Amino acid sequence: MEIPLSQVRAAKAGDATATAELLRLVWPNAYRIAWSILQERGAAEDAAQDACARVLTALSGLRRSERFAPWFYWIVVNESRARLRSVAREVSLESGLSREYAVSADDEATRAGRIDLRRALAALDPDLRLAVVLRYYFGLSSTEIARIVRASPVTVRWRLMIARRRLRTLLEEPRSLSNLQPEAEGA
């Protein structure tokens, strides 16, 4: 996410236009991160909205404007995890994917590949999935991810290694994806 430093500073100073633009810029990433944790559209929208509201109320306390992106990701991750802990429910992988990833009339092979990757990602342990999303979708370094998820950079690199191995295995055998269940916490 490329947020101009001047945008963050103007929003911190109370400029309503800059604040609205900042929200417009951060919303898609807030939703993507929340969905990667919650795996359900409504819950992800709620978590992203609550995280954006928290960002706005706490923005004046951000000491270093250039650290906005990692700080923002940290808030979204925490809000999403809190929501995940508070809601004791199972989300069906199949129903979540069919609603969330309806693909238009793309090439059939491309569509199948996207769905397989999304199913494989959804099958990962939430900590592994979050590390992958933050690294490969948002381009954060292991050190930045470590600050966001409150783990060491070594732990983050280990999670990425395990996640890549698991994804490689899942994607090499696409037929196994149809019966795939998400990993249990701590498994």
Which structural class do you get from the secondary structure elements? mainly alpha
CATH class of the largest domain: Mainly Alpha
CATH superfamily of the largest domain: Winged helix-like DNA-binding domain superfamily/Winged helix DNA-binding domain
What's the tally of helices?
Answer: 9
- Series of H and E elements: HHHHHHHHH
Main sheet makeup: none
Number of domains: 2
In percent terms, what proportion of residues is strand? Answer: under 5%
The CATH architecture of the largest domain: Orthogonal Bundle
* Rg: 17 Å
The shape is globular
The count of DSSP E runs of length 2 or more, i.e. the number of strands, is 0
Say what the CATH topology of the largest domain is. Answer: Arc Repressor Mutant, subunit A
Q: How widely separated are the two ends?
A: 32 Å
Please explain how this structure is put together.
There is one protein chain. This protein is an all-alpha fold and 187 residues long. It has two domains: 5-86, Rna Polymerase Sigma Factor, Chain: A, CATH 1.10.1740; 93-179, Winged helix-like DNA-binding domain superfamily/Winged helix DNA-binding domain (Arc Repressor Mutant, subunit A). Helices cover 71% and strands 0% of the residues. It has nine helices and no strands. Helix 7 packs across helix 9 (153-172) and helix 8 (142-149) crosses helix 9.
